[in-house]
Amino acid sequence: MNHDFSHQSYREMLQSFLQQGYRVCGFEEANPVERHLIVRHDIDMSLSLAEPIAEIESELGISATYFVLMGSELYSPFTQASRRSIIRIQTLGHDIGLHFDASCYEDDSASLDGAADAECQALELITGKPVRVISFHRPIPELQGSGPLAGRRHAYEPRYFSEMGYCSDSRGAWHYGHPLAHEAVQVGRALQLLTHPIWWTPQVMD
């Protein structure tokens, strides 16, 4: 299998997980001791570039969670084009979550809880559906390992971050090894797989 960041390699990676008996689950049902795979995408830079990834997953019968950054300096989720992308991703069978940048707010639990709730409600106006899960943009230690935020699960709770395997393509590389070689996968345990659609391209690139 190629380990480049092409769309074809992404498809092949997901197919390999399925062939190894993994079942793709949402955050609410994933069990750390089962062959469960959480497919997560943090959309830091472009909603439109997330659509081809969503299409690949839909063709494979996979439902992922796409986390939208409300305060991005590179896109606004409220523009007509962004709304179309979000709805398109939903139509393909995927969930939309909030990508929350805690550094924009006062560093206390009440302020962060209220801010996350407000951002979730704003995102729900676009999606027309409840936002059930939050991921952190530039995670801060105080929130990692904590319980739910704004009454919603988050991707760095111990259940998803330490009790099961975790692998990310942060900065466009597998810095801790390829997901299929992860220790959790070798022993048949659950894995949270985080990718950023901006890194994945139609053709192989340097």
Largest sheet geometry? 8 strands, parallel
Q: Radius of gyration from the CA trace?
A: 16 Å
Distance between the termini: 17 Å
Number of helices: 6
Order of helices and strands: HEEHEHEHEEHEHE
Which residue ranges are poorly predicted, with pLDDT under 50 across at least 5 consecutive positions? none
Q: Which percent range describes the beta-strand content?
A: 15-25%
Bulk shape:
globular
Q: What is the share of helical residues? A: 25-40%
| Mean pLDDT over all positions | 93
Structure summary, number of beta strands: 8
SSE class: alpha/beta
Throw out a few tags for this protein.
single chain, 206 residues, alpha/beta, 8-stranded parallel β-sheet, 8 strands, 18% strand, globular
Q: What does this 3D model show about the protein?
A:
The longest helix is centred in the middle third of the chain and has 19 residues, at 109-127. The radius of gyration is 16 Å and the shape is globular. The protein is built from six helices and eight strands; from the N terminus they run αββαβαβαββαβαβ. Strand 7 (165-168), helix 6 and strand 8 form a beta-alpha-beta unit. The relative contact order is 0.20. By secondary structure, it is of the alpha/beta class. It has helices spanning 7-19, 51-59, 80-91, 109-127, 158-161, 183-186, and strands at residues 23-24, 36-43, 65-69, 95-101, 133-137, 153-154, 165-168, 191-195. Strands 1, 2, 3, 4, 5, 6, 7 and 8 form an eight-stranded parallel β-sheet that branches. Helices cover 30% and strands 18% of the residues. The model has no long low-confidence stretch (mean pLDDT 93).
